[in-house]
Write a structure and sequence with these properties.
disordered C terminus, mainly alpha, MetI-like fold, 279 residues, elongated
Length: 279
């Protein structure tokens, strides 16, 4: 309850949590919330590029599809990509970080040098190169993002594991004959979950943004999928006259990323003792 009260006093974090809850609701119930769910793929050329109105609050796109419906339906794809990418990146990066932080020798050095190579390259550039090799699709974008995001978890987990490796309770566990897997999974991992959760929360927002960039560049979702980045890319030809075409999908990306960043910052402030003492 004390942690909850501290969290509720952090207004930006609460706003971020509300935004994320709203995005999750749209992702889960989008087909029932969207006013024209059939507009995910159907074309209506007679009503193309209609400005916002009572019938179409966000206007229509170049094929006459309701932009509000496509923004709502696009939430599911954006959230799916973020969850899959961050989940797979954690599945790869966390075990490698635990192993490299606890063990010493050639294997640990090899893991961290490979991690450093990935971190030395800009993630977006590397993801673009991998997506180009794999071909344009949502699956290719998710795989490219996963292969470029796991080093962030490895670096964090490695540092936290090294910090705990020489703790007295680890020495005691080694003294009674506890095996390495038991020490890592039952004793070290639970003590370093906080920075992992914070990194994952911020990573969800960052992944939505990078996935939108890949969609914008034609390396992610393909038509007629309702995708926020793809919608912004398709709107370029019609700017500035059809301003609503780009504005509302772009705002959806902005709000979703902002929500995850606000929540991630709030969680970081909550779990980091140094930040708590400075307040």
């Amino acid at each position: 309850m004390l942690v909850l009260r501290k969290f509720l006093r952090d207004i930006p974090a609460v706003i971020g949590a509300v935004i994320i809850l709203f995005v999750v609701i749209l992702a889960l119930f989008g087909p029932w919330i969207a006013p024209y769910p059939e507009d995910a793929s159907a074309s209506h050329l007679l009503r193309r590029l209609k400005p916002p109105s009572a019938a179409y609050p966000f206007g229509t796109d170049n094929l006459g599809r309701d932009i509000l419906s496509r923004v709502i339906l696009g939430a599911r794809g954006a959230l799916k990509v973020a969850l899959v990418v961050v989940g797979l990146a954690m599945a790869i990066g966390v075990p490698l970080g635990l192993l490299a932080g606890y063990e010493r020798g050639v294997l640990a050095e090899a893991i961290m040098r490979v991690t450093d190579v990935f971190l030395a390259l800009p993630q977006l550039i590397l993801a673009l190169a991998l997506a180009q090799l794999l071909g344009p699709s949502v699956e290719s974008a998710m795989l490219a993002l996963t292969l470029t995001y796991w080093p962030f978890f490895t670096r964090i987990v490695h540092a936290e594991t090294q910090r705990l490796r020489n703790a007295l309770f680890i020495d005691a566990l080694q003294g009674i004959g506890a095996g390495t897997p038991r020490i890592l999974l039952l004793h070290i991992l639970p003590n370093i979950l906080s920075p992992i959760i914070v990194r994952a929360t911020i990573g969800l927002g960052f992944t939505i943004l990078v996935a939108a960039v890949l969609g914008f560049l034609g390396m992610g979702a393909t038509p007629p999928d309702p995708d926020w980045g793809l919608a912004v890319a398709q709107s370029r030809t019609y700017l500035p006259n059809a301003w609503w075409f780009a504005t509302f999908p772009g705002l959806a990306i902005l709000i979703a990323v902002l929500g995850f960043n606000l929540l991630g910052d709030g969680l970081r402030d909550l779990v980091d003792p140094r930040l708590r003492r400075s307040r």
